[in-house]
Amino acid sequence: MTATAEPTVEFGKARPRKEDARLITGRSRYTDAITPSGTLHIAVVRSPLAHATITGVDKSEAEQAPGVVGVYTAADLGLEGVGLPCAWPVTPDMKAPQRPVLATGTVHFAGEGVAVIVARSPAEARDAADLVEIDYEPLDPVLDMEAALADGATLVHPDLGTNENATWVFDSGEAGTGTSVSDAISAAEADPDQVVVRRRFRQQRLIPAFMEPRSAVCDPTGEQITLYAATQVPHILRTMTTVTLGVPESKLRVIAPDVGGGFGGKIGVLPEEMLVVALAQKLGKPVKWSETRSESLLAAHHGRDQIQDITITAKKDGTVTGLDVKLLADMGAYLGLVGPGVPILGAFMFNAIYKFPAYRFTCTNVFTTKTLTDAYRGAGRPEATFAVERIMDELAVELGRDPMELREQNWIKHEEFPFTTVCGLTYDSGNYEQATQQAMELFDYAGLRREQEERRRNNDPVQLGIGISTFTEMCGLAPSRVLGSLSYGAGGWEAASIRMLATGKVEVITGASAHGQGHETAFSQIVADQLGVPFEDVEVLHGDTQISPKGLDTYGSRSLVVGGIAIVKAADKVIAKAKKIAAHLLEASEDDIEFAGGNFTVRGTDKGRSIQEIAFAAFMAHDYPEDMEPSLDSDAVYDPENFSFPHGTHLAAIEIDTETGHVDLRKYVCVDDIGNVVNPLIVEGQVHGGLAQGIAQALFEEANYDDQGTLVNGTFVDYTLPSAADLPSFDTRTVSTPATSNPLGVKGVGEAGTIASTPAIVNGVLDALRHLGVRDVEMPCTSQRVWRALQDAQGRSTQETPVDTHSPGAGLGSIDPNNPQGEVQ
Amino acid sequence: MIPSKFDYVKPSSVAEAITALRDGGDDAKILAGGQSLIPVLRLRLATPSVLIDLGGIPELRGIREDGDRIAIGAMTAYYDVIRDDLVKQHVRLLAQATETVADGQVRHRGTLGGSLAHADPAGDLGAVALALDAELVIAGADGTRTVPASEFFVDYFTTAIGEGEILTEIRFPKHTGWGSHYEKFNRTAQAWSMVAIAAAIRVEGGTIAEARVGLTNMGTTPIRATGVEQALVGQPATADAVRAAADHVTEGTSAPSDADAAADYREHLAKVLTGRAVLAAVG
Ligand SMILES: Cc1cc2nc3c(=O)[nH]c(=O)nc-3n(C[C@H](O)[C@H](O)[C@H](O)COP(=O)(O)OP(=O)(O)OC[C@H]3O[C@@H](n4cnc5c(N)ncnc54)[C@H](O)[C@@H]3O)c2cc1C
Asked: Which residues form the FAD-binding PCMH-type domain (chain B) (predicted)?
């Protein structure tokens, strides 16, 4: 028997990511770095108008431009009848417009493609794009959701007869999972011992702003057509390309090489991806598209954009009795792959950690002439968490209660798990008390409350606010039967394979598709433990449908909780096979074989074989049991039985300079319960990134449109993403109440920071300002908005906060009103 | 994004650069650090036929003492300005303001001359040049001329640099021993100023003897807050006196409105920030 060193446990080790060296140094393979010989390049000619009839397309000058191979409209390519897929018909009567590959007849948002240039170089394609003359007859833009639903509104898609995509309702009274909210509200209104609090919140439009712009290359020259794409969903893209263009799935290989971030923004099936496939097939040459940053901000799908009308009822002792949620969700001009379902995902999370006896959720999806919206980190859950955490603070104010105490009074106690919520989900585990207590200690909640008191008393120009968010989320999308009940167009399983190589090394194949999360490291750690092999001996392969033929990709904090478990199941099968061979070689009964630390031993003896030896024996196949094949390789498909429910307590200390309105996040503490932790370093990274994005929604980001429907802050100069310099050093911790729904006890962490942090910040902002008479500040809580709110509260009227001012673009700090487009002479 | 086609020349002397400018005609554009010009080209807001890169002209780079002035070559990078001992000692306000410009990467590439020639009213260094009575040396085919900062900034993105001319040097009168501060207010930490106040103050025995105050992004050009300066001189260096003087800051301004700040908010900010800048300067 080969001596194996004392096995070290990988699970829980803060390993630096093995992907980092290549990703951080840029020695990597992003899609744009892939240029098969003979590649042609495309540029999309996009509409500058939000809503207009196309009255003419003159391609002649562009066709003559140097290097141009062709200029095409949808009609030229025979793609007029082709519509991009939406995989989530949320209701049977959902209204779905055809989303064309290139607009024909009418453009429905500024940035929509109308024609495509194919040229020998990207520069020539870009030059020629300027030469296509498109005549438009402007139509009225449709920008405001409420106006869009009013009688007589201009219709985005007149053939649908309405701007309403769908209305989706959940009523706990009707579902039998709780009582009726209408009853709860009427009862509260009639009862002097109850209160009803109604608020309207706005989820502004956000831009996912991944680092690597989108890109796709189609090489039609092999037996299979190969599509490289900067996508989160290579498997879905493959199936959907088949559905959309009719290329047989077996003829299509999709590769997602290294992908530089997605945050949901790369979950789509894109017109440009379909264009490169169609053009490559037509021209018989590789065709490539790489978007510019401006195109990315303008035309890649946006996120959030909801109006939330929230009603909460409670007894005066603080016990909540009902929650009514009415949403308007902006779909933009078309439906994205899962766009209509994104707000609906929130339906299960508005009740959050609280024991609402009655709950209703009504969401109306609305079409406007803006860029479409779809998944963005958290997808439905940040919106829900924001609303409920904000309204809990409002209720606390109404009742004169400490907001944390009020939450505690209403949340599910740790001894009440498993707990079936008012919308029918069963939370398997959790301990809100534990996370909260740790967070409050770390934060020095009591000390900061004292400081806050003092600053108020002294009329300090800098006021302190304390923001709370005690959140939960549903991760691990998703049990397939639940998706079925929501009419989602796919299952929620994940696939994995493990190949034991002759030399004892291990290849792990996953259907999850990493785009920056660190799967290669975390999955290697899991497999190293499961099989008892060194971490370094495990290679994780993914993102290529030829290597990993089966999978449902990465989104919804599912990779570990679903994909990771599939790997564990595959490892179990490897071990079971190896055990048989070991028993055979060791001439022992299988029942007497024990497996630990990579070694199969005969109980009570020192006889044994390492898993590597067994792998070699299987490869040689000179001597193995008759009733099995000579292979340890195993596949597994895992369909989760339940979601997982990470939770946590997030606390923010906010300083507001009341003279300028400047908001400074002074301190941020979070204690997240994400179950067992595979790699604390990766977890910390995920939490930090998530926090930055959630805080960005609260304080920095908003996609603004002018009254013509033009995106006015479509560059990184004016779409103000925060950088590290805008954020404090976060104090992040984890506690663990293991999930009981999966063998690793893991819960998922990819979206937690984003989901939890936004309400913590806004609650903190308002907590600093409320005693000065401020009732609300819209997101993002910019210094200007805060200042105006303070002026308002003091009865001084000021100008409107302008949001629709044109910007000249990158590199220019200000705008010349005489020359708003910023042409530089 | 991809700029449209242009030619590129890299002269090795100012004379060569001026010839290249003449040869390039209307469409020629000077390239300094490229931190404003390259984005403008990539967005195709400008489509010059030829770029004349000043990066190969050693005489345009560097900082020297010239009598009662500190002379800074137009192509001196922000990073070098910030670290320079002469600047720190005699024109500290310039170092303070330059430190607030953008991020480390931009500060390594961007140049003092490029910033002033670009004349973005949201740019940080115009207010400093104006407040400190800098002189700008401009070279052309007919030789060299010197323009005071007060005449240099003409309008949005427009300066006294004429066609065929190059900004070669910026001379700052020494303000040795003055207190100074650059108070910048922005939307995100590494961005242009929504409003900023450049203040240099000389205090004698507790009284403000001289005051220089420049404003960033309160009009189409950097603006000298002469009302504030006059109100400060002779006053005690106390918070009340300074705040009262700061109320004059909006005189002669025409604050722009954009998504970050409408004019009324900018005016309010200017008052608050002027008080803070001057108080920090008198320290
Ligand atoms: C991300 C980012 C953030 C920024 N933040 C700030 C900020 O906070 N504050 C701030 O002030 N600026 C900021 N800037 C702008 C930056 O300061 C630029 O460097 C500066 O505006 C231009 O300097 P440059 O050397 O890069 O000039 P270039 O970009 O090369 O040139 C700018 C213009 O000036 C002309 N020009 C340059 N040199 C000369 C010369 N010697 N003679 C005649 N004409 C000349 C060019 O032809 C061009 O029109 C930022 C830029 C970026 C990219």
From this structure: 1-177
Please identify, by atom number, the ligand 1 atom nearest to the C-alpha of residue B186: 8
Please list, in sequence order, all residues whose beta carbon lies within 8 angstroms of the beta carbon of residue B180, skipping any fewer than 6 positions away: B92, B93, B96, B198, B199, B200, B201, B281
**Residue A746 Cα distances to A554, A644, A675, A757, angstroms:** 16, 8, 5, 21
pLDDT band of residue B1 (cuts 50, 70, 90) is confident
Distance, CA of B252 to chain centre? 19
What is the predicted pLDDT for the residue at A806?
52
Average pLDDT rounded to a whole number, residues A193-200: 98
Q: Is residue A583 part of a domain?
A: yes
| Contact map slice: A 85-124 vs B, CB within 8 A | 122-123
Q: Checking phi first, is residue A660 left (phi over 0); if not, alpha (psi -120 to 50) or beta?
A: alpha
Q: Which of A721, A801, A810 sits opposite B43 (nearest CB)?
A: A810
Is the pLDDT at B94 greater than 90? The verdict is: yes
CA of B110 to the centre of ligand 1 (A): 6
| A812 pLDDT more than 70 | no
B36, B37, B38, B45, best to mutate vs chain A, most A CBs in 10 Å: B45
User: Which of B78, B115, B184 has the most ligand 1 atoms within 8 A of CB, as the residue to mutate?
Assistant: B115
Looking at A614, A638, A662, which one is the last position of a domain? A638
Question: To which residue do tokens 């609402």 refer?
Answer: A356
Domain boundary among A606, A638, A670: A638
Q: Is the pLDDT of residue B192 over 70?
A: yes
Residue B168 has pLDDT above 90, yes or no: yes
Query: Which of B5, B39, B220 faces A810 most closely, judged by CB atoms?
Result: B39
What residues does ligand 1 touch, defined as CB less than 6 Å away?
A 811, 813; B 29-37, 54, 74, 101-102, 106, 110-111, 113-115, 117-118, 120, 123-125, 161, 166-167, 191-192
- Residue of B101, B105, B124, B187 best suited for mutating to test ligand 1, as the one with most atoms within 8 Å of CB: B101
Amino acid at A112: E
In a domain, A354, yes or no: no
Taking a contact as any Cβ pair under 8 Å apart, which residues of chain A between 242 and 301 contact chain B?
292-294
Domain span at residue A785 reads 428-490+641-825
User: Are A600 and A728 in a shared domain?
Assistant: no
ipTM: 0.97
Calculate mean pLDDT across residues B191-208. 96
Q: Which of A280, A638, A354 is nearest to A479 (CA)?
A: A638
Q: Using 50, 70 and 90 to split pLDDT, how confident is the model at A820?
A: very low
Q: In whole angstroms, what separates CA B265 from the centre of its chain?
A: 23
Residues A653 and A788 occupy one common structural domain: yes
What percent of chain B stands above pLDDT 90? 94
Q: What does DSSP assign to residue A302?
A: B
Predicted pLDDT of residue A1: 45
Q: Give the three-class secondary structure for A593.
A: strand
Residues A516 and A555 in one domain: yes
Taking the C-alpha atoms of A515, A517, A523 and A529 in order, what is their torsion angle to the nearest 10 degrees? 170
Same domain, A110 and A258: yes
Q: Is A612 helix (H, G, I), strand (E, B) or coil?
A: helix
Q: What is the percent of chain A with per-residue pLDDT over 90, rounded to a whole number?
A: 93
CB contact under 8 A, B217 and A130: no
**Domains and their CATH numbers in chain B:** 7-55 (3.30.43.10), 63-170 (3.30.465.10), 183-282 (3.30.390.50)
Three-state SS at A309: strand
Q: Give me A61's structure tokens.
A: 């000058």
The pLDDT-based confidence of A209 (bands split at 50, 70, 90) is very high
Between β-strands B63-66 and A252-255, what pairing exists: parallel, antiparallel or unpaired? unpaired
3-state secondary structure A398-454: HHCCCHHHHHHHHECCHHHCCEECCCCCEECCCCHHHHHHHHHHHHCHHHHHHHHHH
